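Sequence in, structure out. First:
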Amino acid sequence: MFKIWAKIIKDGKIVKQLTYEREEKLTYSHFFTYLCDICEGLDICTPVLLKNHIFDFAKFSTVRFIARDFAESIDFDKLVLDNILL
């Protein structure tokens, strides 16, 4: 089981958040699926997922997606995903 805390941040403040959890073990090969589910729950477009994003999440338990990571324009500063360690 794992949990990911997703936050949309604008001007240094959390404007929207979501706690995503699954009963299965966190698998990095399925990380894009998790990201799509989270973005659908937050009602935002899905950013481009690079290998560096997965490495940051694996090493630091957090990853940040900024405007250049999105194909469409966004009305917030960044999307932050934090791994909630159980």
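Second:
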Amino acid sequence: MIYDTYIFDLDGTLLDSLTDLAISCNYALRVNNMPERSLDEVRHFVGNGVKKLMERAIPDGLQNPAFEKTYNDFRQHYLVHNLDNTKPYPGIVSLLQRLHSEGKNIAVVSNKFYAATQNLVKHFFGEYVTVAIGERENIRKKPAPDTVIEALRQLNASASGAVYIGDSDVDVMTAHNSGMPCISVLWGFRDKEFLKENGATTFVTAPDEIF
């Protein structure tokens, strides 16, 4: 089906950012004398924002007395190093270029903190994507529909004729809560079996299958 508006998740959907997230996570753990995490562990920690990532990575999570310092160390490191290894998945730029050329509304909504979301989208996709919403203090993060609603407002578009595209269970719930269909991508951080168990019904294995 062809839609008027395409709302994309960022990490695991448009960008392969796992390596940089893991490096910054382990930097913060290391400088605070905490055990580091494997790439696969970090893969399973992401999806609910970077604070939840660090809550899962830090021993005892929020109860750890050093949580805030470790979390802030992660944030500062990641803001400097989020372009070291991160890159679009193959076929993503061509997809966005095609959607843009056909006059489609395009936005990105992410649970990544706002500054990093803005910087990454502008760097990689600024020619095609003008609306990028990240985690902010005055707006509930996904799976609440707030970031999607804000993106639609900025696009001057409605949920009717819109589709949400993501790689996680959080994205499936976000689409449901926003009243729009969800396309689940299979090149991201979660596999098909996990996504099916969490309500996903429509899958693509390559970006050109979205259009």
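Remark: The beta strands are 5-8, 15-16, 87-88, 105-113, 131-135, 162-166, 182-185, 203-204.
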